[in-house]
Amino acid sequence: MPRRLFIPIIFLTMLSACGGTPASSPSEVASPASTESQLEALATTSLLADIAQHVAGERVHIESILPVGADPHSYQYTPQDVAKVADAKLLILFDDTSYETFLEPLLLTAGGDTEFVFAGAGVGKRADLDLGGFDPHLWLDPNNIIRCVENIREGLTHLDPTGAAVFKSNADAYVAELQSLDAWIVEQVNQIPAERRLLVTNHESLGYFAERYGFTIVGSVLESFSSGASPSAQQMAALIDQIKSSGAPAIFLDAGDNPALAQQIADEMGIRVVADLHLESLTDGAPAGTYIDLMKYNVTQIVTALK
Ligand SMILES: [Zn+2]
Predict the structure, then answer these.
(1) What CA–CA distances, in Å, run from 235 to 217, 219, 221?
(2) 3-state secondary structure of 152
(3) Which residue, 67, 99, 259, 306, is the most exposed by fewest CB within 10 angstroms?
(4) Residue 5, domain member (yes or no)
(5) Range of the domain at 202
(6) Does the pTM of the predicted model rise above 0.85?
(7) What is the whole-number distance in angstroms between the Cα of residue 195 and the centre of ligand 1?
(8) How far is ligand 1, taken at its centre, from the CA of residue 163, in Å?
(9) CATH classification of the domain holding 217
């Protein structure tokens, strides 16, 4: 069972009892330059850092803990991450540690006095106990990001109250971009005949996207909300039956997925594999250098394969 359903948007936690002491060098305290320098905050993933940076603008620099391309489902934190988290005043995560599973042990090791922003708080979460609780992939519906932006704006305002008006205006501008993105996706998806709006993925990552844009999730190779699962022969046979009866024309994989099982199924059934979606991480520059570019890129790949 999932550990938590609703979490306060912001809470303060002191982990000093766990042995961590925030590092602060005498030069940082004494230097007038450092007090005037840009504020810093951490976000768990590259995707979330980009979203938060749009709200923060030039007042706060947002750094991602995960490097571009890392899989949040299986990330192992580094000693550098421990140092960063120990120093961080604000850490932005999607919702809870069922996605960012590296975070809980990392926080316990780092200690420090960090304020958290649960960006996804208040988003209606998809749940499926067979697939392992809650679906974390809420960012694949831009309407959920609008809620994240509001939570991030509140968190940044708490960190830097004098920036309130700037964060509000940045958030409003970004929300307008997200609304245009949503309208653009609807237009693109309309090119796919309704009976071909069928999604097979490696692990179940496109549920929020499917619900928003009228797709049916036929199944997933790993039958899990996480990339860490492994399927049984029975599950594979069931998926093959589901693909056959639905007529799904393609299997969609993240660029970081191992394509072997999907390719085996696709070869057997004469359907295609689209192996280069970017669902969990930005790319370094094109094609998915920002959240909005990532969505446009994925939608274009999906529409091209299904229309
Ligand atoms: Zn995933």
Answers:
(1) 15, 10, 8
(2) helix
(3) 67
(4) no
(5) 192-306
(6) yes
(7) 26
(8) 34
(9) 3.40.50.1980
CA of 135 to the centre of ligand 1 (A): 8
Ion ligand 1 — residues with CB < 5 Å:
205
- 33 assigned to some structural domain: yes
Torsion angles phi and psi, residue 68, rounded to 5: -55, 135
Q: Which of 184, 211, 226 is the last residue of a domain?
A: 184
- Ligand 1 center to 164 CA (angstroms): 33
Could you tell me the distance, in angstroms and rounded to a whole number, from the CA of residue 142 to the centre of ligand 1?
A: 16
Q: How many domains does the chain have?
A: 2
Q: What is the pLDDT along the chain (307 residues), one digit of tens a residue?
A: 333 323 333 333 332 223 333 333 333 333 344 445 689 999 999 999 999 999 999 999 999 999 999 999 999 999 999 999 999 999 999 986 678 889 989 999 998 889 999 999 999 999 888 887 899 999 999 999 999 999 999 999 999 999 999 999 999 999 999 999 999 999 999 999 999 999 999 999 999 999 999 999 999 999 899 988 888 889 999 999 999 999 999 999 999 999 999 999 999 999 999 999 999 999 999 999 999 999 999 999 999 999 9
Residue 99 CA to ligand 1 center (angstroms) comes to: 8
Under 8 Å CB-to-CB from 288, ≥6 apart: which residues?
278, 281, 282, 294, 297, 298
